[in-house]
Amino acid sequence: MPPKAPVTPGEKAAAKRLQKKVEMASAHSAQAATPSEIETSESVGSRANTLTHLVWNGNNTINLLSQQPHIQVILHAAIQLVERELVFECYFPRPKHRHTMMVNLVLEAASSAEHKEVLQRLEQDQAYMKAFTRVPDGRIGLIRKKLKEISDRVVPGAYGVKTGDDEKINRLLNLLTFIYKFDTKGNPILSQPFDHPAINTVCQLAFFTSQDQVGKKYKDRFVSVLDDNDEPEIPSAMVSAVVTAIFSSLLDLKSVVDVGRERGDFGQSLIGMFDNNMEMLNGIYTKGPHVYHSLMARKYKAVSNVVDFASAKLKAAFARIDFDGMKSQKISENLMKSSREVFPDGACAVESAKHGAIGLILHYFGDQETEVELQSLKEEIYVTTHNHCQVVGVPGDIANSETSQKIVEAGVEAFGRIDVLVSNAGICPFAEFLTMPHAIWERTRQVNLDGSFYVVQAVANQMKSQVPQGGSIIGLASISALVGGGFQWFVS
């Protein structure tokens, strides 16, 4: 029997993720049926079945927002799964792999939807499936664009280059010197590949800085390739994607664009570079799985540390609140029922509810995106507390003092008092010190400093006047004040 081919770290990690999925899977899995005879796109668009009907535009395309609500839900779910698949499995899939990926993601999204008729038709009708996959497949370019934009912002400062520094850029690109950590003399440390700080910075900004990014949303998918160590690792596809983005950003800074390439390109033309990065990581794994694990586990700690640290600070802050003491205050029964009204912000809302808050005042910006986030957060809180926690949303720009006053008024109107304030609103636009537009400085100061002052002052006045008097005010600041970060000095 010929020797078994070595397993790549990506395959090993995928197998472990699949094992976890099987162990946690519910009884709602669906098996694909035999595809029916292929129909034309026109027949798909004109099908009378109301539950599975797709709305086609005049230019023979499908627009997500034109579809029925339940179809939109499935498409939204499939789009969210696309980035997950790209960064955990393959960021630059070849056409055949890409088609299979889209089909599987659409089926996964539809299997958890309410209307099983859609799932059945997707399984049985190839033309319908082809039409359906157009929407999530079309988002791949946008997903890559976001990563490239982050890389473009980080690369000049991280490597000390600007447009036209061709000689320096060529040195960085030669033998992939840019992936190594440098010593104090600017020489690459060859024992530390994929360890340049720019890689971690781009990875963190692209995947780990908000609740809806893959690093946060799919935390359970970060697994170890080792059987004797469960310490989570960054997947090789994620690292390779980031390195490919940095490579593209460096190319764009050259005075002359390489033949056959367009400036700003981050599409399929870079598949060779991505594959090369994957092969290098596979080679490290083949040489020594424990060495590979040490590298990728260390990177996971580095890029996820911001989120973990903030969460730890938040939990520590809440641990100091004497909820039992607040309950035992000698006040009327009516006030007792509303004595734990908490005014949190963002992610801490669910934790507040778990700790016993019966009322939450949630401030949000008020645009379409934050409106959707608020509704999702409300649903999570209601499910978590079995509808025992009332939630009031207050939209507005925290940089305006009127918004803080509206927040207090909404809280008092709904609950009669405010017992805990968590001041956690903040923004972090990245900019280099010497070239940062003054408007960015002004806006960051308005939100992070003025906004914090306005809301703390407004709530403090309410706590002073309410009976019984007092409450707890928790102010959270950026981790950049402690550990720093590229292009984040002014947030500190």
From TrEMBL:
<dbReference type="InterPro" id="IPR036291">
    <property type="entry name" value="NAD(P)-bd_dom_sf"/>
</dbReference>
<protein>
    <recommendedName>
        <fullName>DUF6532 domain-containing protein</fullName>
    </recommendedName>
</protein>
<feature type="compositionally biased region" description="Polar residues">
    <location>
        <begin position="28"/>
        <end position="44"/>
    </location>
</feature>
<feature type="domain" description="DUF6532">
    <location>
        <begin position="77"/>
        <end position="258"/>
    </location>
</feature>
<dbReference type="InterPro" id="IPR045341">
    <property type="entry name" value="DUF6532"/>
</dbReference>
<dbReference type="Pfam" id="PF20149">
    <property type="entry name" value="DUF6532"/>
</dbReference>
<feature type="region of interest" description="Disordered">
    <location>
        <begin position="23"/>
        <end position="44"/>
    </location>
</feature>
<keyword id="KW-0560">Oxidoreductase</keyword>
<dbReference type="Pfam" id="PF13561">
    <property type="entry name" value="adh_short_C2"/>
</dbReference>
<comment type="similarity">
    <text>Belongs to the short-chain dehydrogenases/reductases (SDR) family.</text>
</comment>
<dbReference type="GO" id="GO:0048038">
    <property type="term" value="F:quinone binding"/>
</dbReference>
<dbReference type="InterPro" id="IPR002347">
    <property type="entry name" value="SDR_fam"/>
</dbReference>
<dbReference type="GO" id="GO:0006633">
    <property type="term" value="P:fatty acid biosynthetic process"/>
</dbReference>
<dbReference type="GO" id="GO:0016616">
    <property type="term" value="F:oxidoreductase activity, acting on the CH-OH group of donors, NAD or NADP as acceptor"/>
</dbReference>
